[in-house]
Amino acid sequence: MDPRRSARTVSDPKVRQVGFFTPAAPPERSCSDPPRQQDLIQPQSPSSTQVNDHSRSGDSLSPVMIPPPPHHHSDTLLRTALQVSSPKTALSYSAKTVTIPTENDDVPSSLSPSRKFVAVKSPSSYPGVRAISVPASELTTVSVVNLPPGISEKVGGGASVEVQNDRPVSSKSLKEKTSKAERRAMQEAQRAAKAAAKAEGTKASSTATKVATSANTKPSKAAKPSSQKNDGSQFAASEKKVGDRAPEKDRKKDAPHPRMQYDDTSRVEKAKKRAVVKQTEVRNRVELFRHLPQYEHGTQLPDLETKFFELDPMHPAVYKVGLQYLSGDIRGGNARCIAMFLAFKEAIKDYSTPPEKTLIRDLTARISSYVSFLIECRPLSVSMGNAIKFLKNQIAKLPLALSESEAKATLMSDIDRFINEKIIVAEKVIVKHAVTKIRDGDVLLTYGASSAVGMILLHAHELGKQFRVVVVDSRPKLEGQLLLRRLVRKGLSCTYTHVNAVSCIMQEVTRVFLGASSVLSNGTVYSRVGTACVAMVAHAFRVPVLVCCEAYKFHERVQLDSICFNELGNPDAISKVHGREDINYLDGLVNRENLQLLNLVYDATPSDYVSMIITDYGMIPPTSVPVIVREYRREHLWS
Amino acid sequence: MADSALNPTSNVSAYYQTRSSQHAVVTSDWLAQAQAAVSRHTDDGDLLGSDGRAAAIGGRGEGSGKAFSVIDEFNSWRKQPDLAEAVAAIRALAAVIRTSEATTMMELEIELKKASDSLKSWDATSISLTAGCDLFLRYVTRTSALEYEDFNSAKSRLIERAEKFGEISCKARRIIAMLSQDFIFDGCTILVHGFSRVVLEVLKTAAENKKLFRVLCTEGRPDRTGLRFSNELAKLDVPVKLLIDSAVAYTMDEVDMVFVGADGVVESGGIINMMGTFQIALVAHSMNKPVYVAAESYKFARHYPLDQKDMAPALRSIDFGVPIPSKVEVETSARDYTPPQYLSLLFTDLGVLTPSVISDELIQLYL
User: Fold this and answer.
1) How many angstroms away from the CA of B195 is the closest CA of chain A?
2) ipTM strictly over 0.90?
3) How far apart are CA A455 and CA B346, in angstroms?
4) Which is nearest to A337 in space by CA: A207, A517, A215, A486?
5) pLDDT of B9 over the 80 cut
6) Residue range(s) defining the domain that contains residue A384
7) A72 and A155, same structural domain?
8) In what order do the strands lie in the sheet with A511-515?
9) Whether residue A180 sits in one domain with residue A53
10) Is any Cβ of chain A less than 8 angstroms from the Cβ of B339?
11) Is B268 at the interface with chain A, CB within 8 A?
12) Does the residue A478 lie in any domain?
């Protein structure tokens, strides 16, 4: 700790203490607020703590948040971001200049008048780096980290500074300031201190240390931990993976990763400013769900489409997939995951390591930027989160001696293997197990359109089993009709109804098959909204409920209700009925203050209602999900 | 075992007297059973035996044409009175390894697989036999670096593991008996269903430790397991009371705990046991009495029944003692499935487990 404190006077950005620490000594900073309990990050430089940061967690935030490039410039978001920090900050928030302490230092002198001002305060830590790493523990970090790739380019210096550019660039210039040796010494000292404090530190802290070494990954990290619900620790830990796989990592991985909570307006603003996709927030939001992002639908697509040719650093394949998510063309956990991975494969194929950068870090950073873009289009599903974790893991495990083309080939084959083993073959295994539970004369009920359940029903039909299917559907998505179409075409006898009638139809049902977006560690099934209703009614009628879910969708998170983690869909979809113009009762009322439309996308089914979970590891009771997660992760890490 | 059909009590009401006279028939079936029991005294069945035996009698002894027949070995092991069938199978399989003439690992494994298949087919409805064979195969072949050693040392290692597994299985009952001692307190009343040698061992140990307890045995029709069990307990000087199967709910008030064995323990944590166990567990659950299951670990099977009819049926002909018109159907299933929510604890040689741990163990073993 102390070495770090003294280091502050030296404008050394790398030093930064983040994590669940209570500061040994209150930092003698000019910051107005003492570190708060909730603030996990302990910014080093007082200056960073906002002097007048109006945001609550401002103090801890500042270094993390660093330069939110507000677009005070008339240019596009990109360009503004470019200017990197200081000038912007100086302009945008006079108050906030303080917050960007380090950055300002980094910025080349030409940039910011406020630099001097900042310098006095002594920069806390290397903004980009730490900031991002911190978010892991910090609840509110802005989700969209990296300014759109374009920005990086503009920034002088670092030729192909990837992503998160501005930071890297500034860091580079900063580096020139303090001598390398000095910084190394600083780093070592901090690393030692970190190692000592690791007992209580969170992954964030380790991340911080590691981050110090890998400059390029910073922004990506910020984006990931904050916004990605699933990645969190894993992701941060895997970043560091280069060389270090300490056992504490496992422990830290167990800590929940924070996500961006959207009720904090300041952070939301910051996030918005960095966003590629410009979204406007819906005005009337249900109070209980203010922590989830809700944007006006329909506004992003045209905007993004026009930007298609401008987003240089963003790979077109990824962009395309993002647009497909936004418009709803691709839905379903498996489909989204596969589409994302195929896009990443393209991106990796076209990737070339910029000079003076290592492939591992650079590629990881780039992938992170893609992911943050995808998050803006539509929040990640658990399957995608796990898949991304896997990919980052694989990248981090690449032996350094590999040539670029070999590394790329390895990664691409890893992706292929993942898709094949965990998704395609897994589905086949699930089908094989599940058809043993279907007997002649059964009446099977299913809800929504799960790819796994569809395949089970079709396969059982092919095997010649005699059974009936009841497909239950619900507005506004009416996904059940997709499944119904497939079944009817193949000749199965089906009944179609809406979820309102499920208690009537349940009397004749013998088995219920449900799909899942994810299964959490306490056995809770996180799936399309309405699944919980169906499972509850089935339980009341003593009908066994079988959930079919591939093992890669399991998550170690625990969720007790459907509120703390969910996705909000388009509210207009529930106020209007497509094709029925006469149902216009809500026209003109939608923007009233006393009307709040709530369109949830997911819900959580408690494990008591689930009889069995069918996975590619066999049929397991809901209580055994953490066992699979434990075994799966282990195999994951060691494979 | 004699006079089991009659139940003379001095103050039986008139109504019941007439009824008992109707039932007091010494059936020919009973006589045949008594004779068979004398000759087959190895089949002092555990629950598994009671249902599987009848089905398997026909298919017994169809050993392969090899010089060494695993079935013969199996049967010779089974002649020991106290040995569970699965343990006999395990010992037989261990003998297969020992006497095998294979020269490569692959060949040995194939031989083992064949032997295990023939054992399983000897009684296809027996869950513990199947489970025991599967577990044995996994346990034995799971040693790492088998392929790197020369064949003989690998083989001896396999034999070692096989013996060890056999030992564990034999000692399983003792371990379970020791673990369950804490749960039997002085003055408690235990309800027992079916004839499980593990439960018998538990109660024997408790009696040896000078615990004072009382046992209520259900009659266990049609196998009369309760009668045999009460005989054994009487020898230990443990106060025993016999109940007819229907009297369970009536006496549940005075019961402190229910002890049963298991034919097989399934992946959900539930058990498959003699017909009537589910009923008793339901009654016990609704009256808040704990249900304890004593089962060895080789009975853990990878089945997952969703309801009573989801298992392979095990039928046993029931003789009611009186002729039944041919158009009357009889439910002849010999076992039922008790879901995990009605069980409190399982005493196994791996420790005292809750039902949800079973899946954990199975996953660790099979994956």
Assistant:
1) 29
2) no
3) 37
4) A517
5) no
6) 265-426
7) yes
8) A493-498, A467-473, A442-447, A511-515, A545-548, A612-615, A618-620
9) yes
10) no
11) yes
12) yes
